[in-house]
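Table 4 source record.
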Amino acid sequence: MKIAWMGLALALAATPAPAAWATETSDGATADGLFKAGKFAEAGAIDARLAAKDASDYRAVLQLGRIALLANDLAAAHRWLTMAIALRPADADPKVMLAEAYYRADDFQHAAAALKGVDVAKNALLINDYPTLNVAKLESFKGQIPYEVTGAGETTTVTLIKTEPLPLLRVRINGGEPVTFFIDTGGSEIVLDSAFARELGTPTFGKVTGTFSGGQEAGVGLGRIESLALGGWTVRNLPVATLPLRQLSEDFGVKRIDGVIGTTFFYHFLATLDYPHGQLVLRRKTARSVDQFMQASTSGPRIAVPIWMAGDHFMIGWGRVDSLPPSLLFVDTGLMGGGVKLAESVIKAAGITLDESKAGEGAGGGGTLKVIPYDVGRVSFGDLTEENVKGLYDGPFPWEETFGFHLAGMVGHDFFKPHAVTFDFQDMKVFIQ
C-alpha cells in the first residue's frame, strides 16, 4: 500500500500552558478545566463573570481574548487582548494573539507592530500556534491590500481536474502559465513547491520549522507572491510558504504539482468544495453571500457543524469515534487514502486494531513515513455519521494537546468526498450536504 500524501497541517510540539494561565481561584480552575475539555463557551462565561468582578484578573482577561480568537470574534479578541497587554505589558502572549487577530483581518502592518518586543525566536505560542506571523513578511505588504480580489460577479466557479486522490485544479501565479495545485485544508497559507518558488523569484523571509504527519519536522520557507488567478478572479498580494512538492507529482497522476491551496486562502471567501460535481465555488465573503447560500435550494439535507479556529488555520468541531464520548476533530481534507486519523490514545480507548500486515509507505510534509491502516466502525462530525471508516496511523498525532485542549484526531478526504463542503468563516460553521 502506498499513500501519497498525509496532509500539510503545520505546528510544533505541544508545550505546557504558560504560567500566566495558572489557576488563581476555584472559579478560574473550573474555567480552565472547561477550556481543556473543549467547552469554550462555558469557560468563557465563567471568565467573563470573573473579569466583570475584577477587571485586573489577568488570567480571565487573557483567556477571554484567547476564546474570542478561537471563535474568530476579532473585535472581542482585540478588546480583551488589549486589556491583557495593559495589565501586563511585559508579557508576550497577548501581543502574539493580538497580532493573529490583526493578521486574520488582513491588517498586516498592525500585526507586525503588535509583535514589537516579542522574542520571536523563543516565544512558544508564536512558534507552536502562529508560525505564519513573520514580521519581515508582514511588513513587506505595506501600502498593499492582502488578498485583494479583482474580477466580476459575486461568485466564481473552478472546474477541478479531478477529485482523486485529492482535489486538483489549475491556477496562474503572477500572471504566468497555468500550473497544477491541490487542495488541502490541513495547510494554512498558499504553499508553493520550493523549486517553483525559486523559478518565480519569490521574495523570501526566512524559514520556520514545521511539524507534520507522524511528528516529522521540516523547514518551511516564507515568502509572498503578486497574484493567484483561478476561475474568473485574481487574488493579489498573498503570503506563501514553500516546500518540496514536485516529488508528489507521480502519485497524483499529473505531470507536475506546483502548489497547495489551504485554509487561509479559503478564509477569505465563502468557499464550497463540491466533490460530487467536481467544482470549487468561491463566493465573496459578505453577509449577502451567506444569505444567498442559505436560501438556495438543495437536493438533500444540509448539515451545519459549528467550528472554531485554533492556531492560524486548524478548523475544529465536535465529533465522535465509535461509542467514545464526543471529542474535538480537525478538518483536514488533505488526509489522502483514509477518512480519519486518530491520536494513539483514542485508538487504544476505542479498542481499534492496527493492521500491520497492510502497512505501507506514505508521504507527508516532512518526508516518507510508515502508514498502518485500521477500521473504525463509526465516525461522526457534527450530525454527519459515516460507517466503516478507513483510518490511517503514521505515528504520533502531534496536535493532540498543542492548543491547550484535547484533539482526538482529524477527519479527511474519504470522509468528505461524498459531499459538497462549505466553509463559512463569518458564522464559523462547516456546511455539509
